[in-house]
Automatic annotation (TrEMBL):
Keywords of this entry: FAD, Flavoprotein
Superkingdom classification of source: Bacteria
GO molecular function: D-lactate dehydrogenase (cytochrome) activity; D-lactate dehydrogenase (NAD+) activity; FAD binding
Keyword Flavoprotein assigned: yes
Protein name: 4-cresol dehydrogenase [hydroxylating] flavoprotein subunit
Lineage: Bacteria, Bacillati, Cyanobacteriota, Cyanophyceae, Nostocales
GO biological process: lactate catabolic process
InterPro entries xref list: Cytok_DH_C_sf, FAD-bd_PCMH, FAD-bd_PCMH-like_sf, FAD-bd_PCMH_sub2, FAD-linked_Oxase-like_C, Oxid_FAD_bind_N
Length: 409
């Protein structure tokens, strides 16, 4: 491997809709590259920084907005450096002359790509990521619900629409009111006269949820048919649902931005800088990522416990959901605070630990972990830990690569 070639886009194919990248290539770089070659393809973007690594996000099994949002499900051809110094290529890429190196996930023989995600078994130095063409007819729609009953009905109807293929996977999100407000990055200090936490329930009598989705079609006729199906399937109490036919890029499809980063300044009293840097500016964020069965009643019952626990610790329940498949919903919990306030770090971590304790006991295991949670997974009921320990011993006998990552070995 030529270490001088890291941080590069090394292959791109418009017809077969893929791009091959090396470590350090960011979502912004991919977007700018596609713009420079006048590509009609796009990569689903994350809610984090445009400077985030495409490979890094994929290996954490992160998700994006738009079709193919389940990132790891749409990559192949990994190049991996093992802790012993050996280099392997996965799938068909281990055969130098294979025509489908960039096009097929499984290759032939055992599929090993997955052991290099959320792990410390190797360093991925190359990956092919699949892209999608911009839709010919693109629509967005939005609605809101004011209570948990309406939210449960909305979730169940959306599950039906995703299962039948009307709404693509990763193309429907639901944010609660605090997440929507926090995106502006400004706590209403004057309105609350300096009081925390903000309670819209006390001020307005409701804590609404805001939802939105995207529809992809090849023609206006197909798009209008999709719109009709959505309107007829969503619960009547959600009507009217607002639909808009729009330019996908103008709507942000495939365009990375740092708007969500502003939410990390939520509890700060200083002016938000143009050059966002939450670490430098002592913004506090403790994060949890959970996967729920796509069942409206089950989800809202959990949300009620989660929201009440966060409020108990004097924070706003900043909650967002991404419908990543027809069977699961990913919930993002963000505890936002100002690290310059004495005791706030401890308070936020206590809140996090209380939430995680309840979630684990209830059977809701995180599908991604922050560094604060790496040793929090419950014991397994089988020999999984021993199996992973054996892999670690064989692939990294000196235990030099990220010891303790995901507490598996």
């Amino acid at each position: 491997m030529d270490l001088g070639r890291l941080n590069q886009i090394i292959d791109y194919n418009e017809k077969l809709a893929y791009i091959t990248v090396q470590p350090g290539v960011t979502f912004r770089q991919v977007y700018e590259y596609l713009q420079s070659v006048k590509s009609n393809l796009f990569l689903s973007v994350i809610g984090g920084s445009p400077e985030a690594s495409v490979i890094g996000n994929t290996l954490e099994r992160g998700d994006g907005s738009g079709p193919l949002g389940d990132r790891f499900a749409h990559v192949c051809g990994l190049e991996v450096i093992l802790p012993t110094g050996e280099c392997i290529h996965t799938g068909f890429s281990r055969f130098g002359h294979a025509k489908t190196t960039r096009l097929a996930r499984w290759g032939v023989g055992p599929y090993v790509d997955g052991i290099f995600t959320q792990s410390n078994l190797g360093i991925v130095t190359q990956m092919t990521v699949w892209l999608l063409p911009m839709p010919k007819y693109y629509q967005t729609f939005s609605c809101r619900v004011n209570d948990y009953t309406g939210l449960a009905r909305l979730l169940d109807s959306v599950q039906t629409l995703i299962l039948q293929g009307t709404i693509p996977e990763s193309c429907f999100y639901i944010w609660n009111c605090y997440k929507v407000i926090a995106k502006e990055g400004r706590y209403p200090w004057k309105l609350t006269q300096g009081k925390t936490p903000l309670s819209l329930q006390e001020m307005k009598g409701i804590e609404p949820w805001f939802a939105g989705g995207s529809l992809f079609a090849n023609s206006q006729g197909e798009g209008l048919a999709q719109r009709q199906i959505v309107a007829e399937t969503l619960p009547q109490e959600l009507q009217p649902v607002d639909f808009a036919q729009t330019n996908p890029e103008e709507d942000g499809l495939g365009v990375p931005d740092d708007e969500n980063i502003r939410s990390t300044y939520w509890r700060k009293k200083t002016k938000i800088p143009h050059d966002l840097n939450p670490d430098r500016d002592q913004c506090g964020v403790v994060w949890l990522c959970l996967l729920f069965p796509f069942d409206g009643q089950q989800i809202v019952e959990a949300l009620e416990v989660i929201a009440s626990t966060i409020k108990l610790y004097q924070f706003e329940p900043n909650l967002g959901m991404n419908c990543i498949s027809a069977r699961t919903v990913r919930l993002f919990i963000a505890i936002m605070y100002d690290r310059e306030v004495s005791g706030s770090d401890t308070q936020a971590m206590d809140c996090h630990d209380q939430l995680l304790e309840w979630l684990l006991a209830a059977g809701y295991i995180p599908d991604r972990l922050g560094i604060q949670s790496m040793n929090s997974l419950p014991p397994t009921q089988d020999d999984y830990a021993q199996f992973m320990s054996s892999l670690k011993q064989n692939l990294d006998p000196e235990n030099i690569l990220a010891p303790g990552r995901y507490d598996c070995f």
